[in-house]
Amino acid sequence: MSAIDGNGLEGVSATTLWTLHNRASEAKRSDGVIRDPWAVTLFDTISYDYLKFGKPNQSHGLRAVAFDAAARDYLTTHPKAAVVALAEGLQTSFWRLDREGVLGESRWYSIDLPPVMELRRRLLPRDDRIVELAQSALDTSWMDRVDSTHGAFITAEGLLMYLDPDGAIGLIRECAARFPGGRMMFDSIPRWFSRRTLKGFKLSDRYVTPPMPLGQSADEALGLAGRIPGVAAARDVAYPSGRGLFKAWPGLDHVGPIRRARPSITLLEFR
């Protein structure tokens, strides 16, 4: 496959190359936390100055493993459920889960802005189970396309922190109302990191991350179960154990200041 220029992605859309850099770099390691052949293919095919994102780390690989596990759990009991990947970027979760045999009867709805969807069409294989919707996750007309007769698992991996708080809460509220019995999973950054991005957070001397207005602790995310109608329960999902500091991290969660200052993953269950 000939090289594809990735410089057409800008702003928040370009962050999918940041997460791809981390995930594919992990997948290339013999001791990597994730096995992701399609991430490696994308990384090797898209021509881009990945080093401006700084040294790769395990964070996005571990996040992807956590999302896969929750999706796999839901699909095991809802084998015909719809999976909705909001702002999917260059995630390759579909192929990882399909390799595990849990997507045989499911329909996968891939949602992102047109430039990202165009890259996906050019670089990833076609599959009749995938419905591609080139639009913003906040344009909730996508909900009309989703057949949730047999349940729905909605992912917002690396999305909500880039939204303003009202927009993020509104999206969750809409999902809870439209997909009863479904689940929604998202990750959050802590407030201190959100404030840092608003001032301009540099990954290197050549790259400043887009602002991330929504910051919340794990416990604040759990509190959504009492704030949003239709959300029956919320669960804090632990990051899997990795190497080095990423191995010790889960064991320190009982320390209040660390719990409040760490990123989190939350799984919501809808009534």
Describe this structure in words.
- With 271 residues, the chain is α/β, with parallel strands linked by helices.
- The protein has a single domain, classed as Rossmann fold (3-Layer(aba) Sandwich).
- Helix content is 37%, strand content 18%.
- The protein has helices spanning 15-28, 37-45, 59-77, 93-99, 114-123, 165-178, 191-198, 218-222, 224-227, 245-248, 256-261; strands spanning 4-5, 46-47, 82-86, 107-112, 130-134, 152-156, 183-188, 202-204, 207-208, 231-237, 264-270.
- A seven-stranded mixed β-sheet has the order 5-4-3-6-7-11-10. A two-stranded parallel sheet has the order 1-2. Strands 8-9 form a two-stranded antiparallel ribbon.
- Helix 1 (15-28) packs across helix 3 (59-77).
Number of helices: 11
Biggest sheet, open or closed, and with what strands and sense?
A: 7 strands, mixed
Number of DSSP strand runs: 11
Unreliable stretches covering 5 or more consecutive residues: none
Order the strands across the largest sheet as they lie in space.
Answer: 5-4-3-6-7-11-10
Provide the gyration radius in Å: 18 Å
Strand content: 15-25%
GO molecular function: methyltransferase activity
GO biological process, one term: methylation
Protein name: Putative O-methyltransferase OMT
Keywords: Methyltransferase, Transferase
Brief account:
By secondary structure, the protein is an alpha/beta fold. It has eleven helices and eleven strands.
Topology, element by element:
Elements: E1 4-5, H1 15-28, H2 37-45, E2 46-47, H3 59-77, E3 82-86, H4 93-99, E4 107-112, H5 114-123, E5 130-134, E6 152-156, H6 165-178, E7 183-188, H7 191-198, E8 202-204, E9 207-208, H8 218-222, H9 224-227, E10 231-237, H10 245-248, H11 256-261, E11 264-270
Helix pairs in contact: 1-2, 1-3
